[in-house]
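Justification of computing resources. Each target in the renewal requires a structure prediction run like the one illustrated here; the chain below, 241 residues long, is used simply to show the kind of job we budget for.
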Amino acid sequence: MHFMANPNIFSKIMEALIPWVIVIFVFSGTLGLIFALFISPPDYQQGDSVRIMYVHVPSAWMALFSYLMIALGSLSFLIWRHPVGSLIAKASAPVGAIFTILCLVTGMIWGKPMWGTYWVWDARLTSMLILLFLFIGYMLIGNAFENQNHGNKVASIFALAGSINLPIIKFSVDWWNTLHQPSIFSMKGISVSNEMLTPLFLMAICFQSYYLLILFMNIKKQIAIIKINNHIILSISKKEK
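Resulting structure tokens:
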């Protein structure tokens, strides 16, 4: 991956991928909504309210994936000083926070008819709320230092420490007594029917492509800001000489 350490090379790769990602986003999103709203059957217990699962579950997956990318990007930045690792980590944080909020809100809406309340201090819900605070904390720490490089280091250490929450979220329904439904994929097998898996995967692909689009736009913005700052510093240096 060292050949992508040059932000200019990484930018060219992003430019080549963006059109394909847009096509996948539109196609999977359109097909996923058709399956989720019209073709997928209602649940025998939850009825049509189960359809919120096609937004709730993929948003939960992407929230975890986004933080995983922050942790991996932070790790590559701390160990190998990979500049793109830091860019990916910083670009993943806002979209990860959005996915986490979407997961929490849809979970609350889903929880009302299922549990009779919007919120319980359930292990899965509580750990997802902590994940939102980790996203916010990472963004705040990264912008809290005048020395950007030092801020990136501190934020990266914070991100790696917070990654312990990821397995807690995944296995919380297995480790503790919880009202939350079991994970779709577990050691016991798949907990939903094939008719529901199709729209679920289509929406997951849609959310994944959306993540990539926002990630690429955020990275392009960061690279542009870095170039502008470097140009300003270079101009000031020339004037002083």
